[in-house]
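Structure (tokenized):
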């Protein structure tokens, strides 16, 4: 690392850096493990004696022209030490990129005179991991007088309902004073909806972040949120938030509820959810053309034990690539209904397109949305011997290793002699071209068993 700092100093010392120096610096930066050494390197760069304007120019050069991610990070690190709001064009460019958002946030925090506002603007525009990074940086501010507009935004809009909300929701609730906001006599629906999303994220017992028990304002927030939600007519989206929060109560230890005087509050949540009016609201929303209402209704119906299968089978006819529908149809599907669900999948999924041949692809990403629908069904077929043969044959010839692995595993889980000749023939051809060792071994293991 000292060699990198020295090379940066040499490059910045000259009005026009030599190509050999830049080439050497580029090679050293490529070899650096940025996550282990980036912070130390950034700190060392701040103390370089070279002229600020040349260090700034070198930072922009690497940020704009860097051919390796570490070269871009080096550029952003230099801008953090020697840049200013004049570099906002680059901060806007890289701040919403999940690869460079952390380096951008660190640079902004060091060099921008209005860093809090700049981070706020990026957080509002970001999605996914870049949003997590920006909100975490924003809520980590040491400024005791954080902008009231930012605090309001944290409650209203920071949480979008994404699973990644769990990573930053506790800090956002504290910084935005969630309990204090909910203590107000009245709230507009946008603020109340955002507060509900925060409580849902804090209630996610399976999530990666902190839970309600970690938030000291939870007792007040929960009681006031229920007060607002029961003060007037509710929506199915609001009901789903109540259901999600109630799941936390159902899994919480009685001691925690007693300790915070939440036993009665928990009972009131359960009471609201269990009313005939709530069931009627969900039933009506299951016929809604509004995608948001329908989405909330299907998850609410699942939680309340309301029948869903016929509704979903009708919906999947017009949205055959909606993975949520297939998940709800196949998950815990009873034996007497599996034939109906599998027949719909065989008819509606583009099986010919899915038999594209094996690759090493894992199947992660939006471009694999169709493959993921097949995935959801095939992974449940081990429990249903004899069902979904065309789907399994398709999965054996799919481009994703996961689908091929699961298909072979499903056939291996079926009783000996239950794999039909057509599937054995497909297995034999698939094993001959399978590029993944463990998948091929699974296929050959099924073929080694006696056939029908």
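Design, position by position:
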């Amino acid at each position: 690392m000292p060699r990198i700092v020295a090379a940066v100093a040499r490059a910045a010392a000259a009005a026009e850096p030599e190509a050999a120096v830049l080439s050497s610096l580029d090679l050293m930066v490529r070899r650096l493990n940025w996550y282990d050494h980036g912070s130390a390197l950034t700190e060392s760069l701040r103390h370089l004696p070279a002229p600020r304007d040349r260090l700034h120019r070198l930072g922009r050069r690497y940020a704009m022209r860097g051919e390796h991610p570490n070269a871009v990070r080096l550029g952003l690190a230099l801008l953090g030490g020697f840049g200013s709001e004049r570099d906002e064009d680059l901060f806007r460019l890289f701040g919403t990129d999940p690869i460079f958002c952390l380096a951008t946030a660190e640079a902004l925090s060091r060099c921008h005179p209005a860093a809090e506002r700049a981070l706020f603007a990026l957080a509002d525009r970001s999605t996914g991991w870049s949003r997590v990074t920006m909100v975490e940086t924003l809520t980590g501010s040491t400024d005791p007088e954080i902008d009231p507009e930012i605090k309001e935004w944290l409650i209203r809009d920071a949480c979008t309902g994404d699973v990644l909300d769990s990573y930053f929701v506790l800090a956002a609730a504290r910084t935005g004073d969630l309990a204090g906001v909910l203590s107000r006599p009245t709230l507009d629906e946008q603020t109340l909806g955002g507060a509900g999303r925060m409580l849902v994220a804090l209630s996610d017992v399976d999530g990666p972040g902190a839970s309600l028990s970690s938030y000291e304002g939870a007792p007040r927030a929960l009681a006031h949120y229920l007060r607002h939600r029961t003060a007037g007519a509710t929506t199915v989206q609001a009901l789903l938030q109540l259901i999600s929060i109630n799941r936390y109560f159902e899994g919480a230890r009685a001691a925690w509820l007693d300790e915070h005087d939440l036993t009665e509050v928990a009972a009131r949540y359960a009471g609201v959810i269990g009313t005939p009016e709530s069931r009627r609201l969900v039933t009506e929303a299951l016929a809604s053309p509004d995608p948001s209402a329908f989405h909330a209704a299907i998850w609410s119906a699942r939680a309340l034990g309301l029948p869903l299968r016929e509704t979903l089978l009708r919906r999947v006819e017009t949205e055959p690539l909606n993975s949520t529908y297939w998940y709800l149809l196949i998950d815990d599907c009873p034996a007497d209904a599996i034939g109906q669900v599998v027949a719909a999948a065989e008819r509606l999924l583009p099986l010919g397109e899915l038999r594209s041949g094996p690759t090493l692809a894992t199947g992660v990403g939006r471009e694999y949305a169709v493959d993921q629908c097949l995935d959801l069904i095939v992974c449940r077929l081990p429990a249903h011997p004899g069902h979904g043969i065309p789907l399994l044959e398709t999965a054996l010839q799919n481009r994703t290793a996961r689908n091929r692995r699961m298909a072979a595993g499903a056939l291996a889980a079926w009783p000996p002699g239950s794999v039909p000749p057509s599937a054995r023939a497909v297995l034999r051809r698939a094993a001959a071209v399978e590029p993944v060792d463990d998948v091929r071994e699974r296929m050959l293991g099924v073929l080694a068993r006696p056939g029908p």
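Reviewer-requested clarification: The mean pLDDT is 90. Residues 236-251 form the longest helix (16 residues).
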